[in-house]
Design goal:
about 230 residues, mainly beta, Immunoglobulin-like, 3-stranded antiparallel sheet, 1 helix, 16 strands, globular
Length: about 230
């Protein structure tokens, strides 16, 4: 007992120093990983200069190819993306990621609707909708611009629709295979043709599929590049 009392101050001092070291390391790591999401200071990007986003499902519907094009915002050095989707039981799954742009103006990622562990894959079945959010940041992690959209995954429906029901594309024939994603694309694709609109009143919406988009009509909508629609 006497020996314990004798060494008690030393033990307490050692514990105190250890706690200080852990607190210092935690604060240092937290500062180094900080990102600033000040939505009040977002940069206003003209419609014609907005990035163009697409989500293209694979033929089996188990993966989605994410592509962001026209990333031309000055000072943007990194991009965060977050793909969310809803399971039939109501649970929400997410596929987040960060891209170091390194001066590039576009990037692509193949995203799994499911999970992978030790080379074994589990695929989420029955997915029909979700959302995509991208955030552009400067070299200090400050948020420069943010874009969000909802997407609708379909396969054998005669009508391909946006989640908000604002856009509808009616197919001439009912598809027997393949998957389609309908979504707002933020901006327009990078095209050389003249006469692209400086702004739109609705959309643009895109329909993306692993194969050729079947013939159909989108009444009241103008079309660019066969699968991009706007008003």
């Amino acid at each position: 007992m006497d020996n314990t009392k004798k060494f008690l101050p030393i033990i307490l001092l050692g514990v105190g120093i250890l706690i200080l070291i852990l607190v210092f390391v935690f604060i240092k790591n937290k500062k180094s990983a900080v990102v600033v999401d000040d939505n009040d200071a977002l940069i206003e990007i003209a419609f014609i200069d907005r990035p163009f986003a697409s989500l293209t499902p694979t033929s089996d519907g188990r993966y989605i190819n994410l592509k962001i094009d026209k990333i031309t915002l000055p000072k943007a050095v990194s991009l965060d993306y977050e793909l969310l989707y809803t399971l039939p039981d109501g649970r929400t799954q997410g596929v987040p990621g960060t891209v170091d742009l390194k001066g590039e103006t576009s990037f692509e990622r193949k995203l799994l609707l499911g999970s992978e562990s030790s080379g074994k894959f589990r695929y989420d079945e029955g997915v029909t909708d979700g959302s995509l959010t991208i955030r552009l940041r400067d070299s200090k992690g400050k948020l420069l611009a943010k874009f969000s959209t909802k997407w609708h995954l379909q396969s054998t429906d005669m009508e391909l629709t946006s989640i908000d029901q604002d856009f509808t594309y009616v197919l001439d024939k009912k598809p027997t295979a393949g998957f389609f994603i309908t979504m707002e694309t933020f901006g327009l694709p990078r095209l050389e043709e003249a006469g692209l609109p400086e702004s739109v009143s609705s959309g643009p919406y895109g329909i993306f599929t692993s194969d050729t988009l079947p013939s159909g009509t989108a009444e009241g909508w103008q079309v660019i590049s066969t699968n991009i629609f706007f008003k």
